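Box 3.1 A note on notation
Throughout this textbook, protein chains are presented in two layers. The first layer is the amino acid sequence; the second is a token string describing backbone geometry. Keep the layers aligned when reading.
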Amino acid sequence: MAVMMVGEYKYRVPILIHQEEDTFIAECPLFYVAGQGNTGEEAIDDLAIALKTFMEDKDFEKVYHHKIPEYTPEEVVQKARDLYLEYGESEEELPIFQYTELDICLDHNYKYGIAHAK
């Protein structure tokens, strides 16, 4: 994982991890952003890059004002389940989600560093 950078904005982003066959998926259902990899850690790293790209957009600052919406872990999992069902998955096909959080620190240039996933 990348080393955390000192920056002005630090975000704790709720993420979900699950496995589909040989691929691990890490996703942030709050922002509809996902990453994948051969391991859970690779998927989280890929998601961090995708979140950085998402957060670089100036609309992120305008819409969210540097605040991540707060949800309980159960609400985050339910949001993901609802999205999968909306896109045609059946209840039986839904993955088993593992909830965790990812700390991302952005500096003025919107560089990112991953502090940890817990």
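Residues 14-103 form a domain with the Double Stranded RNA Binding Domain fold (CATH 3.30.160). The longest strand covers residues 9-20.
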